[in-house]
């Protein structure tokens, strides 16, 4: 059975972050049908995460949570916004994941904040983070400000949730985990493009006779 893990980093109980996470989980369940969804609250793992940073290994519920992420076919991650970025609790959990654990794993990213002015955190913080970890981030990210939860008609938030859940559903299960391969530094420099070709493609001046510029 397909397994989706939802990571929610809300600090209050209840929290708007958990509310958004639940709506994304419900939409994904509707899109996939036969799926097992596990919701992991990071707030109760705060002390275990601090211990992990000091000792170098996870224990108890934290070890179980990391194992759930490892075995997941896809992830939904939701964080509150602090100081124009993801929360420290959220980042700490990501920091303790072993190298390569997210390679090729589909991820739906989402965030909450008090105002829509923080919505750029999705593309300037969350998306680069998971791209660096070689996860496959779905095209549609979901941001919810406080005012979005007061919209009883559903509005644009409901549309974004449905679209993002559909994109995650389309990605999940299409990649065989055993076939995932981490891209190496050697891969990056295996077939470099000559600088002169880059200049020609960009429409810039190429080198003239005797190494002089044609400009």
Structure description:
With 215 residues, this protein is of the alpha/beta class. It has one domain (2-177): Flavodoxin domain (Rossmann fold, 3-Layer(aba) Sandwich). The chain is built from 9 helices and 7 strands; from the N terminus they run βαβααββαβαββαααα. It has helices at 16-32, 46-55, 60-71, 88-95, 121-132, 146-149, 155-171, 185-188, 195-202, and strands spanning 2-8, 35-41, 74-82, 85-86, 106-113, 136-137, 142-145. Strands 1, 2, 3, 4, 5, 6 and 7 form a 7-stranded mixed sheet that branches. A hairpin with a 2-residue loop joins strand 3 and strand 4. The longest helix has 17 residues, at 16-32. Residues 175-183 and 208-215 have low confidence and may be disordered.
Q: Under the CATH scheme, which architecture would be assigned?
A: 3-Layer(aba) Sandwich
Total of DSSP H or I helical runs spanning 4+ residues: 9
Quaternary class: single chain
Write down the Rg.
21 Å
Global morphology: globular
Order of helices and strands: EHEHHEEHEHEEHHHH
Share of helix, binned? 40-55%
Query: Got a strand count?
Result: 7
CATH class, anyone? Alpha Beta
Strand-pairing-aware structural class: alpha/beta
For the record, give the distance between the C-alpha atoms at the N and C termini, rounded to a whole number.
62 Å
Keywords:
215 residues; Rossmann fold; seven-stranded mixed sheet; 9 helices; disordered C terminus
